[in-house]
Design goal:
about 500 residues; five-stranded antiparallel sheet
Amino acid sequence: MAGREDGNRQRETQAGPRPAWAEELLEHLRPAGRDVRRVVAWLAATLGATAALQDAAGNLVAGNRLPLDEDLVADLTTGRIASAAWQSRERHLRLVRVEHPSHACVLAVSRQDPFDRQASAVVTHTAQVIELLLTASESTAAGLRLSRATADLRLAILQLLMVEDTIAARRVAAGLWPGLLDAETACVYVVESTPEMRDRVAEECLDRTREDALVVRCPAMDGHVIVVGPRDTTGEALRSLVGRTPGLFLGGSVRQGLAQTATAYGQAVSALAVAHFRPDNTAVYAERTHPERLMDPVALRGWTSRVLRPLDALPHHTRAELLATTRLGLEFTAVNTAKVLGVSRNTVRARMERVEALLGTDFADLTVRAVVHLALNTRIGLPDVPSDGPPQPDLRLADLLSGSAIRTWGQGLLGRLDADARNPRRTLRTWIAVGGNAERAAQALGVHAQTVREHVRSAEPVLERQLLAGGTDLYEVVLAHLTVGDLDLPVLRGPA
């Protein structure tokens, strides 16, 4: 009869409501409460005991360390036994094997009172909850590792494209994204958000482009996502994303060859600045009249070959590396260039110093930077082979800048500043002459440095170019000064 009564009570317990401890334990499976350490602490508090979770090597995972027999722990972690109990006059000990995707753990509970049926059930069910949490944690960690590895691979592909190594970029991409870089040309886009939103924005970019584009979290700017889109549908997908998501801005390049990814990236960044003033928060790089298009193309190519001839003796890979690094280094800071290329800033500086030595010049001079930038951009369109024959001494920079078309362009551009009574044109010329240093320009002009900055900043909307940020816009303005004779022509002496 007693047995039947016990059986009846057991059936009533199973069919009836769960005890309070079970409800509390289940709460730890909710997304907000998934923490193994909290579960072990709850177990210790519920049983008035000391609890510890340790792995096979004896490392404490959660709880407070307990003195455990090493042989017994080994039997549990190797699967010889599933649980064990031990008692003395001072304490009672329960050990339970806890499965783990990569290795087994042991949950040990020690207390002064004996383990009755309820206490034993609490330990057993807690071990099962810990197994679930460890498995979920391992799966989440594996997913994060895979996601991180994939993101690192995308960045590596972008960095290869930045240094014009399209063959290696295609080989790396072919393993996971077959056909992604089969096209010869692509547009580069930069989506700007807050740093907190960027991960979600990057995932949205992947979803909307259906992984038909290379989506990379920019290593230099925390809020930027770079998208290299060989397909024509990429731009429309990103514009749709920006239109539906407040706080996003989109800048895009014109279509470029894959080897000109660095140039396209600079165009996208330039367009991004314009996007902040557009009602739809998007902009595509405007193909305005650039000064090099007003020069004799044959003379420009010949002059470029002569200027960059000192680099032609270098091995192909080294030359391409130096050219790509210098082109980016003239557009951005050394720190940001290093992040984009995945090298140290000291490496960037060392490469640019080597180019300085080969060209026999100094990049601290803005006129030098503008002229070398002109040569590098022209070099993109040249065949990737050393020029034949000796240098042609008649191909001088002065000749390139003396044509009527380029002089008219320079006079028209700088003439926009003449209506301002503050004479920002003089300030701008002086600021360029001292390497873009506001303090030194202020000393030369006898004004405050803040006045110099205000004059330069006020010239930006008039000239429709960013000046304080440096890069292509500034170099075009420098070339305009050179064409009208407001600044002296720089000298490139070649290697010593």
